[in-house]
Write a structure and sequence with these properties.
Leucine-rich repeat, LRR (right-handed beta-alpha superhelix); 2 domains; 20% helix; binds 2-acetamido-2-deoxy-beta-D-glucopyranose
Length: 410
Amino acid sequence: MTPSTTITTTTTFFLFLIYFTTATSSSSTTLDPNQLKALQYLHISTTHDPCTLSTCDTATPFRHLTALRLTDCTADHRLSTAVLTALSTITTLTFYNCHIPVVHFPTILTTNLHSLTSINSLQRLTGVFLSRFHNLTHLYISGDPIKASGIHIITSNMKSLKSVTLSNAHLTGYLPKDWNPKLTYIDFSRNKLKGTIPTSLTLLKSLKVLNFSSNNLNGVIPNSFGDLISLENLSLSSNSITGPIPGSMSNIPGLVHLDLGSNQLNGVIPEFISEMRELKYLNLENNKFHGVLPFNESFIKSLEVFKINGNVDLCYKSSVFSKDIKFGIPPCDKHGMPILPPPATHEPSSLAGDDGGSNGDNGGGYGDDNLEKKSQVNDYRGPSKVALGVSIGLSSMVFLVIFSVLLFKC
Ligand SMILES: *[C@@H]1O[C@H](CO)[C@@H](O)[C@H](O)[C@H]1NC(C)=O
Ligand SMILES: *[C@@H]1O[C@H](CO)[C@@H](O)[C@H](O)[C@H]1NC(C)=O
Ligand SMILES: *[C@@H]1O[C@H](CO)[C@@H](O)[C@H](O)[C@H]1NC(C)=O
Ligand SMILES: *[C@@H]1O[C@H](CO)[C@@H](O)[C@H](O)[C@H]1NC(C)=O
C-alpha cells in the first residue's frame, strides 16, 4: 500500500479521528509513513492529512499521532499488536461502540497512554490488562464487563490517576483501601461492589465527584466524610447504607448534588443541609429518616430537584409551608409525629394524584413534582399509544364498511 491509497470504509465500520481544533502550522509535515499504513489497516481514510483531523506532534521530517478515536467498529475489524506498535505515540485513545476483543498492547503504548476510554467497546477486559496502563491520568470504562477480583487490581499501579470511571462493568469485591491523593473524580456506579465505604477515602482533599450508586455497599457513611472538602457531586444512592448523615458533612462548602436515595439511612435529617448554598439537587427518598423535616419553603424552592418521599416516620410542619405543597410525606401533629392520613382523602397518594393542574405553577415548581410528572408522562405514553392504535383501527374499519356499502350501491 502506498500512502496515497484510499481505503473504502465499509458501511458497518467507521473510524474517526478525534477532531481537535489545534493550530496546525500551514507548513505541517506529513504523517509518519508507518502510522499512515496502520491507519489504512484500520480502514481509516487517509486521503486528507490525518494531522488536520486529529492531534499530532510537530516532529520532523514526519509527524506522529497523539490521539485516536475509534467508533462503531465491528468484530471482524481486529486490533493487532503490530498496528498498535506503529501507533504507540498516541497518548489519548478512545473506543466508542467498538465491540472488539482486546489484544496485547505493546509496553511502549501502555506507558505512553495518559487517557483510555472504552464505552460499550473493548471485550474480554481484565483487571490485569488494565493495570498495565500505569501512566494513565484518565480511565473511563462504561458498559464493558471487567474480570477482576477487585478494583484495587486495576488502579493500584496508576500513580498519576486523577479521574476514574468504572461503571456498569460487572465489578465485584470491595472498595480499595488505598487511593491516589490526586483523584478528583470517582465513578464506580452500577456494579456489584460490596462492603463498607473505607475511611481512607475521606483523605481525598481534591475529590469533586464521587459516585457509588447502584452497588451493594453497606455499613455507615464514615464520620470523617466532611473531610472531602472539595466535593461537589455525591451519589451513594441505591445501596444498603445505614446510620445517620454524619454531622461533619456540614463542612463541605460547595456541595451541588447530594443523592442518598434508596438506602437504609436513619436518624433525623440535619438542618445544615439547608445552609449548603450551592445545593441544587437533593434526594433523600426511600430511607428511614424520622422526625420533622427541618427545611422551609424558600430553601426547597431554591432546589432544582428535591425528593423526600418513602420515609415513613418523617413529617413536615404544615404551618411553615403553603397549602398546595406536596412532598409525599405527611404533615406533623403538635408532637412532631406524622399525622396518619384519614382513609377517605386523597392525601396519602398526594404525589401520584397530583398530575392535574399544578404543573408549572408555584406548587408544581419543585423538582420532585417535575420528576414525578416526567415519569407519569412516560407511564402514560404506553396506554395512549394503545388508545391511539385502537381508535385508528376502529375508524379505518368504519371507513371500510361505509366504503364497501357505497361501492356495493354503485
Ligand atoms: C510513565 O511511567 C514511567 C515509570 O512508571 C515514568 O518513568 C515515565 O516518566 C512516565 N511517562 C510519562 C510520559 O508520563
Ligand atoms: C451516578 O451514576 C449514575 C449511573 O451511572 C448516574 O445516573 C448519576 O447521574 C450519577 N450521579 C452523580 C452524582 O454523578
Ligand atoms: C453535578 O450535579 C449538577 C446538579 O445536579 C449537574 O448539573 C452536573 O452535571 C453534575 N456534574 C457532574 C460532573 O456530574
Ligand atoms: C429558610 O431557611 C434558610 C436556611 O436555613 C434561612 O437562611 C432562611 O432565612 C429561611 N427563610 C425563611 C423565610 O424563614
